[in-house]
Design a protein that fits this description.
The protein has about 140 residues and is an alpha+beta fold. The protein is built from three helices and seven strands; from the N terminus they run αβββαβαβββ. The chain has one domain. Helices cover about 20% and strands about 35% of the residues.
Length: about 140
C-alpha cells in the first residue's frame, strides 16, 4: 500500500506531460495575445501588464491551425481578445526581411521564393505565418477596430 500513492502521482505526471506536444528544434512554443477573425490572428498588446511577449511583434499576423474544436472555440470569441498558445517556426518570427522603402509600404527582397518562378518573384502563398494552436484563454479586453 505504501507504493500506491507514488505510482498514482507518477501516472498523473506522465499523463499531463504526454498531452503537451514536443517542440521541434526549428520552432518555439509561444503564448501571444491578440484578435482573431476566421483563421486569421493579429498580435496585440496584452491588456495584462505582467504578460508581455518579446518573441512576437505587435501587429504580426498568423494563420491559426490546430484541432477543429479549439479553433471553433476561438472563433466564438471574435471581437474579444484571446491569448493563444501554440507552436511557431523560428524563421516565421524573424519577419519579412529585405529592405524597406517608401515609409515601410514597399519591401525589396526577403520574401519566400517559389523555385518554379523567375528570380525575384515571391511565392503566391507567402502570406501569414502559421501557428499550430494547442490552447487558448479569453482576455478581458475587446479587440480594437
Amino acid at each position: 500500500m505504501k507504493y500506491a500513492i507514488p505510482v498514482l502521482m507518477f501516472a498523473a505526471v506522465m499523463s499531463v506531460s504526454a498531452q503537451e506536444k514536443k517542440v521541434p528544434k526549428d520552432s518555439l512554443r509561444v503564448s501571444i495575445p491578440g484578435c482573431s477573425k476566421g483563421s486569421a490572428f493579429v498580435v496585440t498588446a496584452s491588456p495584462e501588464p505582467d504578460r508581455t511577449s518579446n518573441e512576437v511583434a505587435i501587429g504580426r499576423r498568423f494563420r491559426l491551425t490546430g484541432p477543429r474544436e479549439v479553433l471553433n472555440e476561438i472563433k466564438k470569441r471574435e471581437g474579444n481578445m484571446v491569448e493563444v498558445t501554440g507552436i511557431v517556426k523560428k524563421s516565421d518570427l524573424k519577419g519579412p526581411g529585405g529592405i524597406s522603402l517608401g515609409g515601410g509600404r514597399v519591401r525589396i527582397g526577403g520574401g519566400p521564393q517559389d523555385p518554379t518562378s523567375p528570380v525575384g518573384q515571391t511565392a503566391p502563398a507567402s502570406g501569414n505565418a502559421i501557428i499550430d494552436v494547442e490552447g487558448w484563454r479569453p482576455l478581458a479586453e475587446t479587440c480594437p477596430t
